[in-house]
Design brief:
The protein is an alpha/beta fold. It has a single domain, classed as Rossmann fold (3-Layer(aba) Sandwich), CATH 3.40.50.12780. The protein is about 40% helix and about 20% strand. The strands form 3 sheets. A 5-stranded parallel β-sheet has the order 4-3-5-6-7, sandwiched between helices. Strands 1-2 form a two-stranded antiparallel ribbon. Strands 8-9 form a two-stranded antiparallel ribbon. β3, α5 and β4 form a beta-alpha-beta unit. α4 crosses α5. The longest helix is centred in the first third of the chain and has 17 residues. This is AMP-binding protein. Pfam families: AMP-binding.
């Protein structure tokens, strides 16, 4: 599937108006929500997560927002642009949230992949979405994910960068901590990032089914369709 084809898959103006009128979709996004919480309570805890199963990571809204912008700058530095796909195969780590919102900020499409997926299925998924970047973990649950991804590189000409989160990063891989976490891209790319805003009706996520009854199938979601998933109030569509 080409990036142009994915980017062209957006709801019609009539559909957008219908769901906005019903109160299911909106004109702002989760990035606007983050900006509001940052303004109201910047030093409250936004994320509480385990790091390597024993260290607790606490991020305030101020810190979380900083990482969203920093990660967006890191992706922009890797020449990731609107409509391109950033795949991710990570366990449940705190970096996932900021990375997802960073993709939304620059208009990139976020494609999370389960850590249980192995090379044959991973190659199919990455090829299908034509991922420009894949972020993975060095190893998890006894499996060497970075080595598996490296072995697929010759079959994935569209994959420009392999990014690895962990302690083992080879010379032809990008160290997630060094490039994404420790480099202040929010300062060096402030002008470019300041001009970016998320489109609530652009394809923002590619989510794959489990594949238990066949090959995993890709479902396209916008920020609005994802937001509607979490709505709890009943609404009436006319």
């Amino acid at each position: 599937m080409s990036n142009q084809l994915i980017a062209a898959c957006r709801p019609s103006a009539t559909t957008v108006e219908k769901y906005q009128k019903a109160g299911i979709w909106r004109t702002d996004t989760i990035l606007d929500d983050l900006a509001r919480w940052l303004d109201r309570t910047p030093d409250s805890v936004a994320v509480l997560a385990l790091e390597d199963r024993h260290d607790v990571v606490r991020l305030t809204y101020r810190e979380f927002a900083k990482y969203v912008t920093r990660f967006a700058g890191a992706l922009h530095e890797l020449d990731v642009r609107s409509g391109q796909v950033v795949a991710m195969q990570l366990p449940n780590r705190w970096q996932v949230g900021p990375l997802m919102l960073a993709c939304a900020k620059i208009g990139a499409i976020f494609a999370p992949i389960m850590t249980s997926i192995r090379p044959r299925e991973l190659e199919r998924v990455l090829r299908r979405v034509n991922a420009a970047v894949c972020v993975t973990v060095d190893s998890w649950e006894g499996f060497d994910h970075s080595a598996a991804l490296a072995g697929l590189t010759p079959t994935l000409p569209g994959l420009r960068h392999r990014v690895v989160l962990g302690d083992r990063v080879s010379a032809d891989e990008i160290d997630f901590r060094a490039h994404f976490e420790q480099t202040a891209w929010e300062q060096t790319h402030a002008d470019v990032l300041g001009e970016m805003s998320a489109d609530p009706d652009q394809v923002a996520f590619i989510l794959f089914t489990s594949g238990t009854t066949g090959e995993p199938k890709a479902a396209l979601h916008t920020l609005n369709t994802a937001h509607a998933t979490y709505m709890t109030d009943s609404v009436k569509i006319t």
